Amino acid sequence: MISLDFNFNILTRDLSHYLENQVKVGLFGSGVGLSLVLGFSAAYTCYYLISVAKKPQLISGGKKFYQFLREQCPVVSETYYPTFWCWESRIQTLLRPFVTAKPGVVYRNELIKAADGGQISLDWFDNDDSLSYPDQATRPTVLLLPGLTGTSRESYILHMVQQSRDLGYRCVVFNNRGVSGETLLTPRTYCAANTEDLEAVIEHIQRVYEAAPMMAAGVSMGGMMLANYLGHKGRETCLRGVVVFSAGWDVFECTASLEKPLDRFLFNSYLTSCLQASVHRHRPVLEKCYDIDHVMKARTIREFDERFTSIMFGYPTNDDYYRDASPVHKLKSVQVPMLCLNAADDVFSPSHAIPVEAVKQNPNLAMLITCHGGHIGFLEGLWPRQSTYMDRVFKQFAKAVIEQGSRLKDLS
């Protein structure tokens, strides 16, 4: 103890001596430099608290769903404090994969057959150590859908698996064809508009665990696919609820935003190259049906879709594909409780294209809009290694749907 006190006193004395000398020899030989730093810090703090940290906007088509969310998911009413040193949308989007931790998750992989002879890769986290739901037959299941080129190894997916594990639930990640290392058996991959593989996966899970309640969460394109699936199925689904993060509601507006010079440089070109890399890995089977050399010359996502995706799924034009892929046109048919989280500054899904009016017309829908958060960002805290605002929304909504789902049976 004597040694610790002595070292602390020495450190305090040396630090005081250093600061006194720095102020004396500071800017213009006075404490002006320190004053400027303190003044800037105070001004930045005021700006942050007034203009950056804000409560999200919650919009719902019905009072019952709105009240349910306010009671069971307090996060929807709390002020969102973005990480103060990286609240700008593009920075949040770019940094999330690097600054957030990747929880350790051990999956059990399963390959199931599709109707066309292809195979779909599912990664299961069974959570057999669950204390809340020790019976695997009735243990709640959460289906997770990653983004455009994502897999079960994305940090945002791993965080949702971790949140589900804490709640005692099992998870299964639906990997789109050809992205997670499995062999592509047929010349077909995936798109946001086609939900046949998703339907097959949900039916498979229901057959295996027919007594277990199930909900789903989709991120970016995974969320678009989920929304389109619900629009197609109406009430004919076993899903008790759905939560969607950073979905692109109008594909025309999304691609136009991503084609702006800076966003094309930061995001569009990179995602296009990722899509092309996947095509290249499966070239032997794909080149039998498509002009792969032409596909590999695409420079934007739109060009890639024109040369590959829209052709693969039989659309007369790429515009026809984009129209069918846009969930905004199917929201009126959604008959399952669906919570959607979008950031107003998301360049992938611009704020003017967020379907606020469509949400207001359907009592099964709720839209949560934050001022900041970027695309799958939603970083918060001084050093956002662990939970994000998006993760907290997911955990609270998943728990509410599974444990209080009976209150959501009739929202009309």
- Overall helicity: 40-55%
- CATH fold-level topology of the largest domain: Rossmann fold
Please state the CA-atom Rg, rounded to the nearest Å: 24 Å
Number of strands: 9
CATH domain class of the largest domain: Alpha Beta
The spatial strand order of the largest sheet comes to: 1-9-8-7-6-4-5-3-2
Continuous helix count: 15
The low-pLDDT segments are: 1-29
Relevant CATH superfamily of the largest domain: Alpha/Beta hydrolase fold, catalytic domain
Overall shape: it is globular
SSE arrangement, N to C: HHEHHEEEHEHEHEHHHHHHEHEH
Strand content: 5-15%
Question: What CATH architecture label of the largest domain applies?
Answer: 3-Layer(aba) Sandwich
Structural class: alpha/beta
N-end to C-end Cα span? 67 Å
Q: How many structurally independent domains?
A: 2
Average pLDDT works out at 91
